[in-house]
Amino acid sequence: MKILIAYFSKNGHTKRVANDLAKNLKADIEEIVDLKDRRGLKGWLESGRDGMKGYLTEIREIEKKPKNYDLVIVGTPVWGWNSTPAARTYIANNKDDFKNLAVFITSGDTKPEKTVASLETVLNGNKVLTFEGWSEKELKDEKIYREKLERFITNTTKKNIF
Questions:
Q1: Cβ(161)–Cβ(142) below 8 Å
Q2: Domain extents for the chain?
Q3: Are 90 and 62 in contact (CB under 8 A)?
Q4: Which of 49, 96, 118, 132 is 20 to 30 Å from 110 at the Cα level?
Q5: Mean pLDDT of 4-32
Q6: Residue 34 pLDDT more than 70?
Q7: Strand pairing partners for 155?
Q8: In the structure, what pLDDT confidence band is assigned to residue 87 with cuts at 50, 70 and 90?
């Protein structure tokens, strides 16, 4: 079973979860890089707007091809109560190559269901296999963080996809 973790992270929270998942699942990992300059106040405002409106963006060319994996797990923070443009673009660009897709979300306190629903809109009717979300508070509480990580791993690997 081959697993790929692809993630976008601006402040390190999503990267932390991606690295822990990759370690526990013995998965390959790839960072999704947004090529738009999102620094400073202007970048912050545009990022929130782009997330809220469901915009796509230009991302760096990926090295690991999703079609070569049994499962791809995409990680994204929440911008403007929605997924990041980089994660949405990654999914849109590769939607025909996913055998199975799971998603994890990091956020201030946005419910992951809303973010996952927005990502599914670019999947042409396909659905995300499973998902999990961590709020900022849950990321800081090691016990809750580990419990949710273990639950996501269990839910992802028990879906009889392998």
A1: no
A2: 3-157
A3: yes
A4: 96
A5: 97
A6: yes
A7: none
A8: very high
